[in-house]
Amino acid sequence: MIKRKRLLMHVGPVDIYDEVLYAGLKHNVGFSSEEFVQAFQFCLKETRKLFRVDNSYQPFIIPGSGTSAMESVTSFLGKDNKVLVASNGVFGDRWVNIFKRYPLKVDYLGSEVGDYVSVDKIEEKVRKEKYDLVTLTHVETSTGVRQPIEETVKRIRDYVDLIVVDGVSSVGAEEVRAKDWGVDIYLTASQKAIGAPPGLGILVASEKAMESIKGDSVAGYYLDLRNWLPVMRNMEDGKGSYFATPPVHTIFMLAQAFKLIQEEGLDNRIKRHEKVAKVIRAGIESMGLRLVAKRPESYSNTVTGVILNKVRAEEVLKEIVNEGVELAPGVHPALQGRYVRIGHMGWVTPNDAVVTISAVERTLRKLGEDINVGSGVRSAQAFILDG
Ligand SMILES: Cc1ncc(COP(=O)(O)O)c(C=O)c1O
Predict the structure, then answer these.
(1) Kind and range of the H or E element at 320?
(2) Start and end of every Aminotransferase class V domain (predicted)?
């Protein structure tokens, strides 16, 4: 009996290179040690590049996960501020759950399942009412749907104070241009397309956003970015600094992931993600299955939601592990049990995509789904060779 090797095609945490994991196996490194400060400094500088911003944006790397980065956005809000949540699914909705805990006024604009939020409707809403802050989700991980951020921001920029984009499932894999697009706060997490372990919320904030942080905010204590700001500034200056114990080992791993991103080049990384996503979709569609994302222009480079015809999602997820691949469950309540998600973020390759498609074919055939076995793999191969 041999131990099964498993390909993790999940939505996060994703497959992580050993050299990234090993970078965290450090001992005797305090949070003010030269080694650690250098790693932190490097991560802050690379964070700016990742979001394509210059020194006018302040980067933050804070403990927690994507949700901690989301909740830290309360640092930019004062009592009774008015917020619009434009949500394309489960993670967009999370903003409401966060903001409801604070003395804020929250409006909500949703989308149909599998679609993004209508840009016309967002524009109409912000023209009618003045909002202090609007949230958008770049790639909605529950469905794999991508919001056209550049276009959306262009249409609403003049009417709202601050625009926040959740890029947890996009940064490092999709085109992201925080400054050029006029996004004030763009956030992500370590465990997705950056390809590091979970444990860090990562964001950049514009000058305008940093101005608004000066007054009183509704933020709690731990996620008040005013407490983290001196740490970020000192670390970037190469000086040790403390507000609360940083996850030292995870920062070393993040630094290693950033080194590998640097070696690959961000543009190449985005292109690789795009190619892998196309190979996956070519395979899934020619098998005769439908995608959750309705419009081709909203297909993402990072997550593909696959609707099952007959079999239940739980059975597929259980069985496909025996075929050597792990996928992610569907989490959108409207499609519960009827779809699975293929995550393709981090260090994925077209070869991983073909392996995944072949495992999906075998699994579905075993479970009695009516699919064309072999045609998915054939289309995936053809796409890799001929585009
Ligand atoms: C788009 C999006 N936003 C926010 C989150 C929350 O991040 P975390 O689970 O790291 O707290 C996730 C997690 O998957 C996500 O996909």
Answers:
(1) helix 313-322
(2) 32-334
Cα angle 13-247-344, degrees, rounded to a multiple of 5: 15
Structure tokens at 335: 């499609």
The helix-helix angle for 34-50 and 248-264 (nearest 10°) equals: 50
Domain 7-13+266-386 has CATH 2.60.40.10: no
What are the sequence ranges of the domains in the chain?
A: 7-13+266-386, 18-263
User: Which tens digits make up the pLDDT trace of 205-225?
Assistant: 999 999 999 889 999 999 999
Ligand 1 closest atom vs CA 65: 10
Which residue puts its alpha carbon closest to atom 7 of ligand 1? 66
Residue 348's pLDDT is what? 96
- Indicate which residue's Cα is closest to atom 16 of ligand 1: 141
Q: What share of the chain is helix, strand, coil (3-state, %, to 5)?
A: 45, 15, 40
63 lines ligand 1 (CB under 6 A): no
Over residues 56-61, mean pLDDT: 98
Residue 3 reports pLDDT greater than 70: no
Q: Are 43 and 165 in contact (CB under 8 A)?
A: no
Place of tokens 């498993």: 6
To test the ligand 1 pocket, which listed residue (117, 140, 141) has its Cβ within 8 A of the most ligand atoms?
A: 141
Instruction: Return the CATH architecture of domain 18-263.
Output: 3-Layer(aba) Sandwich (3.40)
Q: What is the pTM of this model?
A: 0.97
pLDDT given at position 2: 63
* DSSP structure class, residue 100: T
On the question of a cis peptide bond just before residue 13, with omega within 30 degrees of 0, the verdict is yes
